[in-house]
Amino acid sequence: AQKITQTQPGMFVQEKEAVTLDCTYDTSDQSYGLFWYKQPSSGEMIFLIYQGSYDEQNATEGRYSLNFQKARKSANLVISASQLGDSAMYFCAMSLRNQFYFGTGTSLTVIP
Amino acid sequence: GAGVSQTPSNKVTEKGKYVELRCDPISGHTALYWYRQSLGQGPEFLIYFQGTGAADDSGLPNDRFFAVRPEGSVSTLKIQRTERGDSAVYLCASSLIPGRGVYNEQFFGPGTRLTVL
Q1: Which of A23, A39, B26, B61 could pair with A92 as two cysteines, CB 3.0-4.6 Å apart?
Q2: pLDDT band with cut points at 50, 70 and 90 for residue B101
């Protein structure tokens, strides 16, 4: 069963605008972590932001914020003031016990 | 400081051959993970090491795949009798906090692109 679902295969955003990348997850565990990673065309996976299941406040890291809605099991990534360098694949992931589960990713293209 | 390194960066082999992929984690990281990423997909978990032992190998697709980490640092992923379907990017990651902690940020290597002809 799919544990992480990213329903947007591709997204476009105008430079300097904000964009939201969707992520929903599936677990009955109470303790888990949610992550977003960026993967540029070079292939490296770059950690962006983390949200723990017990964290009450939404995580923020610079231009990145995670909109955590526990009851809806969603963990959307919001990128503010998009830059051309933000064009990449974005993966939502969940850490659960010993494993990491990744979604299929969203390809973000920032338009000048 | 040095990040996670993986060698080779690219490996082309013929169907039926044996390959070894190497991962050198960040010094001091006790947890090490292997993933496989097929084209257009997210990384798929293969195996997790805590120290020298494989704490979870449930993601290995079949018995042609095996991984070791004999001294608790460098790890080698071994694939026997390679098949065309094994073609993918194999990613390695390491983390400081092992296993069960939810905040186990993983630092990824650049990957090894394996092509089986």
Answers
A1: A23
A2: very low
